[in-house]
Prior knowledge:
Elements: H1 2-7, E1 13-17, E2 20-23, E3 28-31, H2 34-37, H3 46-58, H4 70-82, E4 87-93, H5 96-112, E5 121-125, H6 134-137, H7 143-146, E6 157-159, H8 166-180, E7 184-189, E8 193-194, E9 200-201, H9 204-217, E10 220-224, E11 248-251, E12 263-268, H10 269-273, H11 293-308, H12 311-329, E13 335-341, E14 344-349, H13 359-369, E15 372-373, E16 380-383, H14 391-409
Parallel strand pairs: 3-15, 5-6, 5-7, 7-10, 10-11
Antiparallel strand pairs: 1-2, 2-3, 4-12, 8-9, 11-12, 13-14, 14-16
Pyridoxal-5'-phosphate (PLP) is lined by residues 95-97, 100, 129-132, 190, 195-196, 224, 226-227, 252.
Amino acid sequence: MDRYREEVDPLVVERSEGAHFWDVDGRRFIDANSSWWVSTLGHNHPRLVAALKRQADVHCHTALAGMTHEGAAELAESLTAVAPAGLEHVFYSDDGSTAVEVGLKVALQYWAQSGRPDRNRFISLEDAFHGETIGVTGVGGVEVFRRPFAGVVPEHFRIPSPASGEDAAAAALEKTLEENTDRIAAVVLEPLVQGASGMRMYGPEFLRTARALCDRHDVFLIADEVFVGYGRTGKMWACEHAGIAPDILCTAKGFSGGVLPMAATLMTDRVQSAFLGSDERAFYYGHTFCGNPLGCAVAREVLRVFEEEKILEQAEPKAARIAEVFSELAEHPAVERTRSLGMIGALDLRGGDDYLAGGGWKIYAEAQKRGAYLRPMGNCVYVAPPLVIPDETLDELLGILRESLDAATS
Ligand SMILES: *Cc1c(COP(=O)(O)O)cnc(C)c1O
């Protein structure tokens, strides 16, 4: 961390509102990545803050163990109502990593008590990111995140990313499933966009293929919608672009609108039914803050805001603007390639795609001078602003991006 300690002068944030935050020196910044993809409804949305305060006045926490509360039940009901078809059961946890960890454990235990205990491996994608626990690190495909824990994280099957070629990925998936059917519990993937490895995108066709292959081999499909869910790609869930439903779906980040850590893992009736029956079939798993009332109240309000304020419809012209500007930026001499989907626009700078590469940080510094927080991932510079960013703020952000690109690369 030497370089970080010597060179980085962190922004000390004092307050935030909508698409902006202010530091202690009174400088205002546009939050180009929704503070790590979380504040989809903007910072401190008044309705979310009000829901939090209302709940806090009444009741902050109970364990979901032999007791429950209305908010947890109501949230599960409204969540399953908007979820892809068939996802009827909800398991709450704290964050994206635990949402995926729950998905993995559910799949493993399902097969262990359905007479197929050898089905204890997953197929995941190269360049995947599914979070930080040891369990989910095993299905991650970003080498720098995995390397220090080699030998400890569980080894699974990994196929090439469809973002590097959909046909090759589909063929590898088919082959891996055929050769190892008896060992595979589930295929786990980020639908359409591999966020943390640099906004690597692929098309819905691969998702349909993955669904069909999972069906053919009777293997579960786990969709990690922690980043792409809640409208980020233009639809409520990225899986909707392909018209498919997973067996298990993980959501966090936008799920609680950037107010509190909160996550959920949704599953089908079939998956859940394996845990019925005698006591030892139960899912002995529960995080302390599972179904926390504050988180439930806020997450419930997020869904109301999505519906009542027509967030997805309102984001459409903004997404079109992002697509337009990023396709223009493809002509920039410093830019290798660009891509966009929904409220995500990304470009790769020329000169290598190592995660630790420095090109993006020059642009970050220039953007900071101009009033935008534009944190890169290696050579990938991207925007993933709040879905509700006002049009003029979005134009300002895209202008700053262009100017910073010029300034950093001329
Ligand atoms: C961020 C992310 C996670 C991990 O979420 P945390 O809340 O940071 O634990 C998992 N999967 C995907 C796709 C993510 O983008």
